[in-house]
TrEMBL record:
Organism: Rickenella mellea
Record's protein name: Sulfhydryl oxidase
Residues annotated as domain ERV/ALR sulfhydryl oxidase: 81-183
Segments passing through the bilayer: none
PANTHER family the UniProt entry points to: ALR/ERV, FAD-LINKED SULFHYDRYL OXIDASE ALR
Keywords: Disulfide bond, FAD, Flavoprotein, Mitochondrion, Oxidoreductase
Highest classification ranks of the organism: Eukaryota, Fungi, Dikarya, Basidiomycota, Agaricomycotina
Necessary cofactors: FAD
Length: 193
C-alpha cells in the first residue's frame, strides 16, 4: 500500500491518510473521503482572525452531524457523489458475501468456473489499486474455494478478515452459522424478518 508519509512527500505535502496510486498521484478511490481534503475547515477557521458566531455554530453543527473536529468533511461522501474506498468496500463485500451465501451447495462445473473467474478478476480489476494488490497476494496463497456455498462463504470471510486485520477492524467469526446469519438469514430475534 502506498500512503503519503511525510518522508516520501516532503515536496508535495499530501494530507495524512491520503493514498497515492501507482502513478505517484493521489488516488481518490483508494482514499477515505474524510482524508481527501481533511483540513479544509481547520485552515479556513485558522485563517479567520475573528471567529464569527457563524463559524462557532457551524463547528457545533458539524460535530453534531458526525464531522470530526479537525475537518468539515463528513465520513462518507454526500449523496450523489462517487464512492470512496470505504463505500466501495462495503458495497463490494455486500455483493460478494451475499453471492457466496446464495451459491449452491453443489455447484455445476460451469458455476464453479464462473465463480472462480469472478474472484480471480478482483485483484486485476478492483479500482482501489493497493486493495487489489494486497488481495492478489492473499489470493495467491489462498486460492478461492468454489466447491460449494459453505467453503466459499468461509474462504471469503477469511479474506475479508485479512483486510480487517490490516485495518485494525474486528475479526468476524467465519462459521457458516455466523456468515449465514449476517448475509442470508438474519439474527434469530427476527428483527430482520
Ligand atoms: C477486496 C477488498 C479489499 C480491500 N482492501 C482495503 C485496503 O487495503 N485498505 C482500505 O482502506 N480498505 C480496503 N477495503 C475496504 C474495507 O475492507 C472496508 O470495506 C471499508 O473500510 C469499510 O469498512 P466497514 O467497517 O464499513 O465494514 P466492511 O469491512 O466493509 O464490512 C461490511 C460488513 O461486513 C461484515 N463483516 C465484517 N467482516 C466480515 C467477514 N470477515 N466476513 C463476513 N462479513 C464480515 C460486518 O457486518 C460489516 O459491517 C477493501 C475492500 C475490499 C472489497
Amino acid at each position: 500500500m502506498t500512503n503519503a508519509t511525510p518522508e516520501s512527500t516532503k515536496a508535495k505535502q499530501f494530507p495524512p491518510g491520503m493514498i497515492l496510486g501507482p502513478d505517484g498521484k493521489p488516488c481518490k478511490i483508494c482514499t477515505a473521503f474524510r482524508n481527501w481534503k481533511p483540513d479544509t475547515a481547520a485552515k479556513n477557521s485558522e485563517s479567520s482572525n475573528k471567529p464569527s458566531s457563524f463559524t462557532a455554530t457551524a463547528g457545533v453543527m458539524s460535530e453534531l452531524a458526525g464531522f470530526t473536529k479537525a475537518s468539515s468533511r463528513p465520513d462518507t461522501p454526500p449523496e450523489g457523489c462517487p464512492p470512496d474506498v470505504e463505500q466501495l468496500g462495503r458495497a463490494t463485500w455486500t455483493f460478494l458475501h451475499t453471492t457466496a451465501a446464495y451459491y449452491p451447495d453443489r455447484p455445476t462445473p460451469r458455476q464453479k468456473a464462473n465463480m472462480y473467474s469472478l474472484l480471480s478478476s478482483l485483484p486485476i480489476l478492483y479500482p482501489c489499486t493497493h486493495c487489489a494488490a494486497d488481495l492478489g497476494e492473499n489470493v495467491k496463497s489462498h486460492p478461492p474455494d468454489v466447491s460449494g456455498r459453505v467453503g466459499l462463504s468461509r474462504w471469503l470471510c477469511e479474506r475479508h478478515n485479512e483486510v480487517n486485520e490490516k485495518l485494525g477492524k474486528p475479526i468476524f467469526d467465519c462459521s457458516i452459522k455466523k456468515t449465514d446469519e449476517r448475509w442470508k438469514d438474519g439474527p434469530s430475534d427476527g428483527r430482520c424478518d
